[in-house]
Design a protein that fits this description.
- The chain is mostly helical.
- Helix content is about 80%, strand content about 0%.
- The longest helix has about 40 residues.
- The termini are far apart.
Length: about 110
């Protein structure tokens, strides 16, 4: 139950943030919802990806210079925490809402 509430709270915070950004810029909320959700999802994904990459690069350089085994190369694994799951669900929901809202333009 706690995880479900974290997912819902994440989606509500993301919607509120994007709504305030759309009001600040002066755009319609539907124009910013999907791309904003995509950008907000990309921020933690890139942070986790590049932190793993930097740690692997550091371990390889230490091993190459000194020969010491500082650690193994770790594969990048993206784990779905409740916050990340909320971001993904918001992105999928916003894509569906965007397609429904702009359906007449797709025809």
């Amino acid at each position: 139950m706690k995880k479900v509430s974290v997912v819902i709270l994440t989606m509500m915070i993301e919607a509120g943030l994007l709504w305030s950004v759309s009001k600040f810029i002066g755009w319609d909320f539907m124009e910013i919802i999907f791309l904003g959700g995509l950008v907000i999802f990309a921020i933690p994904w890139l942070f986790i990806y590049f932190s793993t990459h930097n740690q692997n690069q550091f371990n390889a350089s230490v091993r190459g210079m000194t020969g010491q085994d500082t650690g193994r190369v770790k594969l990048f694994e993206f784990r779905f925490s409740p916050i990340i799951l909320g971001l993904v669900l918001f992105m999928v929901l916003s894509l569906c809402l965007t397609v429904v809202y702009y359906y007449e333009y797709f025809i």
